[in-house]
Design a protein that fits this description.
Shape: rod-shaped
Number of strands: 0
Distance between the termini: 23 Å
Length: 346
């Protein structure tokens, strides 16, 4: 759609002279042809402006302002009638009311596409700005576990920052990279913190084990010292008792070692099961999001194709009445609701 200059329809939007208007105000419905001419000219020019472009929206608003000025001019000239002419005030007021109602409606009709486009544009940019919140740096902190940060990092890594962001793509890409760097550093710190805690636990356990063995060794040496002081007659009995004690300790140690190994194996299996369950939940979530996105895209494509078929059918059906280019313009106007009293059922 081309945005022609308002000067091309300036003559069509011009009003009669004040002298002629006085006569028109007096006649019953005499203003109707003038207003009808204004309506036809304004609507014809409106069809030449594309509300999806800044120039088109500016031209539509300018045209609406022109209609409003014509309305105001008719009202001013109606008010300017002489006292003698005010005897016919009923006819004058009726003409003013007609001009007020129909030209105000025409003004609103002309600027409606521009206002609708602005509302859609505001909603689109608002959606992009809300989506940028996914890259906020406060979704995890130094107190978060490595698994929590890892889960969040996978979510951010899987987010696309391509052309679907439109003019917000550079901002999204920058925030995406910043968030990845931030949470990767946070993950490294969390993993190191948890590794240090595990190492501390291991060292404490080893220290306790050494203390236990040292105590047992001291007790053994003390028992040997006391045994040596006993009479020779008790030597064999003491040696046998010591042998039984050592065997019992070895059995206890073997039992404790076995229990420790079994406990460690259970803990490893439980940790592996938790990790596998978390990974499966994440795979299920990603698959569901992809399925929903595919369904939404398919619905949009089907709706667009259906609307195009209807538009092409309308344009084709009018080829016998006008040229192909005009038929296409009229079909577009019908589809966008710019032609009054005409509605397309999708």
């Amino acid at each position: 759609m081309n945005d022609q200059s308002p000067m091309e329809t300036g003559t069509a939007l011009a009003l009669p002279s004040q002298t002629d208007l006085i006569g028109l105000f007096k006649g019953e419905n005499a203003l109707d042809p003038i207003i009808a001419k204004l309506e036809a000219a304004a609507r014809a020019e409106a069809l030449t402006h594309d509300p999806s472009t800044a120039k088109g929206r500016k031209a539509l608003r300018s045209l609406a302002n022109t209609v409003s000025s014509k309305k105001a001019e008719l009202d001013r000239q109606g008010k300017a009638l002489t006292e003698a002419q005010r005897k016919e005030i009923a006819a004058v007021n009726a003409g003013r009311k007609l001009a007020e109602d129909r030209l105000a409606a025409l003004r609103d009709e002309i600027k409606k596409p521009a206002e609708e486009w602005d509302a859609a544009e505001e909603a689109r940019t608002s959606n992009h700005k809300q989506a940028l919140d996914h890259f906020n740096l406060n979704r995890a902190d130094a107190g978060s576990t490595a698994e929590q940060v890892r889960h969040l990092l996978r979510d951010i890594e899987n987010m696309s920052v391509g052309g679907e962001w439109e003019e917000f793509q550079p901002i999204a890409a920058a925030k995406h990279e910043q968030a990845l760097s931030h949470y990767r550093s946070l993950l490294t710190a969390a993993e190191q913190r948890e590794a240090d805690a595990a190492e501390l636990t291991r060292l404490r356990a080893e220290a306790e084990e050494r203390a236990r063995k040292d105590a047992e060794e001291a007790a053994r040496r003390e028992a040997e010292r006391l045994t040596a002081e006993k009479a020779e007659a008790d030597r064999i009995e003491a040696e046998q008792a010591e042998t039984r004690r050592i065997e019992t300790e070895k059995a206890d140690a073997a039992r404790r070692e076995q229990e420790a190994q079994e406990r460690h194996a259970r803990e490893l299996e439980e940790a592996k099961a938790r990790e596998e369950a978390a990974a499966q939940r994440e795979r299920d979530r990603i698959a569901e999001e992809q399925r929903q996105a595919n369904e939404a895209r398919a619905e949009r494509e089907a709706d667009q194709a259906h609307r195009k078929r209807i538009r092409d059918d309308i344009a084709t059906s009018m080829n016998g009445f006008t040229d192909e280019a005009t038929a296409a313009l009229i079909a577009d106007a019908i589809m966008t609701g710019q032609i009054g009293h005409v509605e397309v059922r999708i």
